[in-house]
């Protein structure tokens, strides 16, 4: 072996992994993670340990605490963030997708962990992603107790990345929400979405880029901003809003409207023998849904099983709780309305359906 060959041995850095950049990213994100602390995690190791710690003695206030868990990602929306160079909002989407699933059963969000996979660690970029996740955790009322940043050179391009997360919540056993609580005559309350949220972006990207030949920087009059700004609008986080409803009203069930659309997700909480009817005429979907439908000549039913069509969360409450529920959400700045009702199933083949035409 020549001296030249001997002196150029392989290394992790030569393979494309920059450990020092990873350490720098951790230092940059610490201030944001600290903002998410709940009393149950304060003083328990902090960022940088092998595992995040949560003081479970806090659960002694429950008679029979049930832990609720969920995991999710953001999908192809991350590619839009990459193209636009905007990294501090995608974390809101991640928290929403995880914690709004957890709150559906009535669980209080407790803590979350994240996984960020990158082609090359850019410390400031990773820190911006974590900043968004931390801000989302604050909005959801949970702690960010840890995570992982993985550098995958050769598998991902230098600017490519993806995010995923897992969360845990807790609910009293006799307070679990779901199908067994729903009764005939209950009202279906819709909560407005902030836009597309984080589902259906493969369809959206195909329509606006491949079919309509639009660009992210293109100003869209109907949006009052660029296409990119509209598509990157963060997913609304409903966790604390839903918990507020559980304190002020006798909520029977929630439904988080994600992949599959409103009808399919609502059907998941409708018991045998009952049926949910949602009247489209009670709201007008935002301009972005109209654009996707028209630009791609997408059939209404296809849109409705792919996108949220302006409704991000559903609450099913007794009819006599409607006024209090709407007032609670209005006080929290959430646009909401009665969109339907629970009836006998009759000859209906599914647990939920949309009727009528959307308002103009």
Automatic annotation (TrEMBL):
Enzyme Commission numbers on file: 6.3.3.1
Q: Which intervals hold domain PurM-like N-terminal?
A: 63-171
Its signal peptide is none
Q: Known InterPro entries for this protein?
A: PurM-like_C_dom, PurM-like_C_sf, PurM-like_N, PurM-like_N_sf, PurM_cligase
Q: What class of enzyme is it?
A: ligase
Enumerate the catalysed reactions: 2-formamido-N(1)-(5-O-phospho-beta-D-ribosyl)acetamidine + ATP = 5-amino-1-(5-phospho-beta-D-ribosyl)imidazole + ADP + phosphate + H(+)
**What's any GO biological process attached to this entry?**
'de novo' IMP biosynthetic process
Q: In which pathway does it act?
A: Purine metabolism; IMP biosynthesis via de novo pathway; 5-amino-1-(5-phospho-D-ribosyl)imidazole from N(2)-formyl-N(1)-(5-phospho-D-ribosyl)glycinamide: step 2/2
Q: Which GO terms describe its cellular component?
A: cytosol
Q: Where is the PurM-like C-terminal domain?
A: 183-348
Q: Name one GO molecular function term.
A: phosphoribosylamine-glycine ligase activity
The listed locations are: Cytoplasm
Keywords, ordered alphabetically: ATP-binding, Cytoplasm, Ligase, Nucleotide-binding, Purine biosynthesis
Q: Which residues form a coiled coil?
A: none
Q: Which family does it belong to?
A: Belongs to the AIR synthase family.
PANTHER family reported for this sequence: TRIFUNCTIONAL PURINE BIOSYNTHETIC PROTEIN ADENOSINE-3, TRIFUNCTIONAL PURINE BIOSYNTHETIC PROTEIN ADENOSINE-3-RELATED
Official protein name in the record: Phosphoribosylformylglycinamidine cyclo-ligase
Species this chain originates from:
Streptomyces spectabilis
Q: Gene of origin? A: purM
């Amino acid at each position: 072996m020549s001296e030249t060959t001997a002196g150029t041995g392989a290394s992790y850095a030569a393979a494309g992994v920059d450990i020092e950049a990873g350490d720098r990213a951790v230092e940059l994100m610490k201030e944001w993670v600290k903002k998410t602390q709940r009393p149950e995690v304060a003083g328990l190791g902090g960022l940088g340990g092998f595992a995040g710690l949560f003081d479970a003695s806090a659960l002694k206030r429950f008679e029979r605490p049930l832990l609720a868990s969920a995991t999710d990602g953001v999908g192809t929306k991350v590619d839009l963030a990459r193209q636009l160079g905007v990294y501090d909002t995608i974390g809101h989407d991640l928290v929403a997708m995880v914690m709004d699933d957890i709150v559906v059963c009535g669980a209080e969000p407790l803590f979350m962990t994240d996984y960020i996979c990158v082609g090359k660690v850019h410390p400031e970029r990773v820190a911006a992603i974590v900043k968004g996740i931390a801000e989302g955790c604050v909005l959801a009322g949970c702690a960010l107790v840890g995570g992982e940043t993985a550098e995958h050179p050769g598998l991902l391009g230098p600017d490519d990345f993806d995010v995923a997360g897992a969360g845990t919540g807790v609910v009293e056993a006799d307070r679990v929400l779901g199908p067994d609580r729903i009764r005939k005559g209950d009202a279906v309350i819709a909560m407005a979405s902030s836009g597309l949220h984080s589902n259906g972006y493969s369809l959206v990207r195909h329509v606006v880029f491949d079919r309509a030949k639009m660009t992210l920087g293109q100003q869209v009059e109907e949006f009052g901003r660029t296409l990119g700004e509209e598509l990157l609008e963060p997913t609304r986080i409903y966790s604390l809003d839903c918990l507020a409803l559980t304190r002020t009203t006798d909520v029977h069930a929630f439904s988080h409207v994600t992949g599959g659309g409103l009808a399919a997700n609502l059907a998941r909480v409708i018991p045998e023998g009952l049926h949910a009817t949602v009247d489209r005429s009670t709201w007008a979907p935002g301009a972005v849904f109209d654009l996707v439908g028209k630009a791609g000549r997408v059939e209404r039913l296809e849109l409705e099983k792919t996108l949220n069509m302006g409704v991000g969360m559903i609450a099913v409450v007794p009819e006599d709780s409607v006024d209090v529920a709407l007032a609670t959400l209005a006080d929290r700045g959430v646009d909401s309305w009665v969109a339907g009702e629970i009836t006998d199933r009759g000859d209906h083949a599914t647990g939920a359906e949309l009727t009528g035409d959307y308002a103009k």
